[in-house]
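Researcher: I've got a protein sequence and the SMILES for calcium ion. Could you write out the 3D structure of the bound complex as structure tokens? I'd like something to compare against our soaking experiments later this week.
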Amino acid sequence: MKITWVILTVVGVGLLAAIVWQMTKLEQRILALEGRTAPVEQRMSAVEGRIPTVEQRVLALEGHLKPTEREGHAYVVVPTPMRWVDAKAYAEKMGGYLAVVTTEGENQFVVDLARSKNVHQAIWIGLTDEAGEGQWKWVNGEVFEFSAWEQGEPNGGRGENYVVMGHLTPQKWNDGTGWARQPFVVEFNSVKDVKDITTK
Ligand SMILES: [Ca+2]
Ligand SMILES: [Ca+2]
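Model: Sure. Here is the predicted complex with calcium ion in place.
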């Protein structure tokens, strides 16, 4: 009878030791897993830290695309550089046309508007001689009278058929190539014409 108790006690202690040992191993695994979650959390906060930046960029873009009115017309500076033909198509999709600059005052207004939106590169306007060399035409069919060519421009012949403003002097025009990518100014006959195509 005594021997039986001894055997049972030994077995019991052995089992208990085995259980404790298993539990310790499990605990170690849990701790190891917990250790791994810390870097994940850090990465999450790093990503979250970047989210306001995206928001800020959207807000900045919305600010850019907010129309500015002048004498009943509206103007939007599109900072994304595009080829002239693509800029023209984009302007039309927005409900407007590449800026048709027919007076000194409008010319200065367009320059100032671009600068106010932090666009300092040369910008496309809606003037082209693609249909016939030297026959400059506004995209909206308005009569071509006012011009503000840089000295020595236009000089590109058949190689340069699209007009940029501010190539050298901010207010002056240059005939540029079809493959150059530039920001541009879109003009609208009314602020009501402005379509927000940024989310489509
Ligand atoms: Ca030309
Ligand atoms: Ca030129």
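Model: The first strand starts at residue 68 and ends at 70. The pocket of calcium ion (ligand 1) is lined by residues 129, 133, 156-158, 160-161, 175 (CB under 6 Å).
Researcher: Great, I'll pass this along to the crystallography team.
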